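Example 115, ligand FE2/S2 (inorganic) cluster.
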Amino acid sequence: MTRLCDLDDLPEGGARGFEVPGLACKVIVVRRGGRVHGWRDFCPHYKGGTPMAWKRDAYLNGAGDHIACHAHGAWFDIETGACVQGPCLGKRLIRVPLTVDEAGAVRLRQREERT
Ligand code: FES
């Protein structure tokens, strides 16, 4: 299982993006409510998918309560990945299964090979 970071490196309410060997896009990890949520950095508004942050690790909206695509302003629910505002309503982000091991490392639960 690919290790992304230590849980302590990700503050509550924070988000970070990680390059993963074999994946064409980054993996976004959001820590919220004591849980971690993983999503591909791949906005469903654009047919081929596109990265969503306007600068490094800037994946959340101003209030920090949604994942935001800064290309055209879509907002996504952090827990479900559903678009709740913007041009891709009805679409969702692609979940990346994560686990936190007993040592506190955040890891991909399985290696994702699809793009
Ligand atoms: S590419 Fe993400 S909202 Fe348009």
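Summary: The pocket of FE2/S2 (inorganic) cluster is lined by residues 43, 45-46, 50, 69, 71-72, 74, 86-88 (CB under 6 Å).
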